Here is the input.
Amino acid sequence: MVLLAGWRNRTDVARPAPLPRTTPHTMRRTYISLALVSNQFDVKWVMGQVRHAARP
Here is the structure.
């Protein structure tokens, strides 16, 4: 196709901005927050999912 020739070399294509200051810990905290809300704040379930067990 002639219309699509060179589309891979375009530099004016808008790209999404990178996430600001995103660390693995940030993603973990986001997951925990979403899991708590979606599981009606079942803290024990969420703790088991993120491997943070309560001490006996």
About this structure: Helices lie at 24-38, 43-49. Residues 20-56 form one domain. The mean pLDDT is 80. The first helix runs from residue 24 to 38.
